[in-house]
Write a structure and sequence with these properties.
- By secondary structure, the chain is an alpha/beta fold.
- It has helices spanning 6-9, 20-23, 36-43, 74-82, 86-96, 100-106, 110-113, 126-139, 163-174, 191-195, 203-215, 232-238, 267-281, 303-315, 350-359, 427-433, 462-465, 470-488; strands at residues 58-59, 65-66, 155-159, 178-182, 219-221, 241-244, 250-251, 264-266, 295-299, 319-324, 364-366, 368-375, 381-393, 399-403, 409-412, 415-418, 422-424, 457-459.
- The strands form 5 sheets. Strands 5-4-3-6-18 form a 5-stranded parallel β-sheet, with helices on both faces. A 5-stranded parallel β-sheet has the order 8-16-9-10-11. Strands 12, 13, 14 and 15 form a 4-stranded antiparallel β-sheet that branches.
Length: 490
């Protein structure tokens, strides 16, 4: 590294952000980029560690992420930023990551959890540097369409335009194939467009990349649901290969008493409608689920739950509470969560910061199990009945929840958002193609090969691996493209 002692001399500095109390009145991104000079100093903290675990891109036996799943050349572009060679840093970044403007904003940065410096100090601010590189690249005009020099004549269909589908399309197009991407929604982007709120990922950022891909020769078809508007047989007849990248979009439900009550929604119903209304009319059309002056309860403690909290805050909710069935994480790494695993420690994400700023406390309630939705005379939800639980070891050796006697509680609720994750892909598309599914309902396709039981049909992303990170979707999109290229050119 250009400054081997940088980690000893420079402290970590994160990108600043608009204050939580102020930003809840705005749907724009709230992060503020550090000046180039300070980012260069942050790059100097990369410590010439010898073995850069940050870019290992592997998982533990339990599935915990270790390092960057797209194998970003992190020490290389950290050093280039330190030296002020921003364009060279951008070239290194694009070698492994098609969409650093997405990951730089929404990835939880497992790379930072595996940073060697994190053993003794705060890790290198990798995520901030990554976003700064690509944003500067667009600002300077360095990111331009690069269509392939030649075409193979092969035609590939990609079903789904989320990060896996876009990455697969980008790589297949670079290989010279004609690529058509089908999306059932009215805008391209999948999860990036309608699953992640605008303040976390501005949709102009997604549209900018889509326009670039179009200029490189990719065809996008929106408002078309394969298996319904367009048959699987027609697709197979017209294309040499098909990539299924529709995601794991089947939400986990909570089938308890009162589930049919009006006012209980899946998180994606809430988030999708909100973003579409924002983009269509700046919310003037009223075609969204407004939380204004409502008591909102979010069931689920992950990223989607946080996005629901942040959205409700911007609507002007009366209160917001978030239920998490797991125990509160520790302040420091637990013994069973060693480096270089992602640290499962207590922290406030942006939504919780905003709720605390307005209401005075973290909105999350831990080890809470919902038992019943109570309704008013019109069938609208009015209350949630819960109990506290504790986790105990069952007879089979596994942890299981045990209700705490006398802990029953009633919570006022006008809107309940179910953000408990996803159970797998939706079946109609898979049935249309006749592809086999595994025991978790995902498409049966081995990593590295990605082929299904149907010749010429491949699967990647959450549809194959189950609910995961955007960065893993990009990994799979790039990898399935390589597999498809070999297959069609055999």
């Amino acid at each position: 590294m250009g400054k081997p002692t940088g980690f000893m001399e420079i402290t970590r500095k994160d990108a600043p952000a608009i204050s939580p109390a102020e930003r809840v009145g705005d749907w724009s991104e709230f992060g503020i980029r550090l000046p180039d000079s300070e980012l260069q100093q942050q790059g100097a903290r990369c410590m010439d560690c010898g073995i850069p675990f940050c870019q290992t891109g592997s998982t533990t036996g339990s599935g915990k992420a270790l390092g960057c799943p797209v194998y970003n050349l992190i020490p290389e572009w950290n050093d280039l930023v330190y030296r002020g060679k921003w364009r060279e840093a951008l070239n290194r970044l694009h070698k492994t990551n098609n969409f650093p403007e997405f990951t730089g904003r929404v990835c939880p940065a497992p790379c930072e959890g595996s940073c060697v410096l994190g053993l003794i100090d705060k890790p290198v601010a990798i995520k901030s540097i990554e976003q700064a590189i690509i944003d500067k690249g667009f600002e300077e005009g360095w990111v331009v369409p690069q269509p392939p020099d030649r075409r193979t004549g092969r035609k590939i269909a990609v079903v789904g335009s989320g990060p896996a589908g876009l990455a697969a399309a980008a790589q297949l197009n670079k290989a010279g194939h004609w690529v058509t991407v089908y999306e059932r929604a009215d805008r391209i982007g999948g999860l990036l467009m309608y699953g992640i709120p605008n303040m976390k990922l501005e949709k102009g950022v997604v549209e900018r990349r889509v326009k670039l891909l179009e200029a490189e020769g990719i065809t996008f078809v929106t408002g078309t649901e394969v298996g319904k508007d367009l048959s699987a047989d027609e697709l197979r007849q017209n294309f040499d290969a098909i990539v299924l990248a529709g995601g794991a979009t089947k939400p986990r439900d909570l089938p308890i008493e009162g589930r049919e009550a009006e006012g209980v929604y899946f998180a994606m119903e809430y988030l999708h409608a909100d973003t579409k209304s924002l983009l269509d009319s700046s919310h003037a059309d009223g075609k969204f689920i407004s939380a204004k002056d409502k008591h909102v309860i979010v069931i689920g403690g992950g990223d989607t739950g946080t996005d629901c909290v942040g959205t409700a805050m911007r609507h002007g909710c009366a209160t917001v509470t978030q239920f998490e069935i797991m125990a509160k994480p520790p302040e420091d790494r637990a013994e069973n969560n060693p480096w270089p695993e992602w640290p499962g420690i207590y922290k406030l994400d942006y939504g919780q910061e905003e709720a605390r700023a307005k209401f005075g406390d973290d909105p999350r309630q831990y080890e809470v199990m919902t038992k019943k939705f109570a309704t008013d005379k019109k069938g609208r939800v009015k209350e949630l009945h819960t109990v506290q639980i504790r986790w105990v070891i069952g007879e089979d050796g596994r942890m299981k929840p045990e209700e705490v006697e006398g802990s029953a509680r009633v919570w006022k609720a006008d809107i309940v958002l179910l953000a408990m994750g996803f159970t797998g892909p939706e079946n109609p598309l898979l049935t249309a193609f006749g592809v086999e599914q595994d025991g978790r309902s995902n498409v049966r396709a081995r990593y590295g090969d990605f082929s299904t039981n149907v010749e010429g049909v491949f699967a990647a992303g959450d549809m194959r691996r189950g609910q995961s990170l955007v960065v893993w979707a990009i990994n799979e999109g790039r990898a399935v493209a390589e597999a498809v290229d070999k297959w069609v050119m055999r």
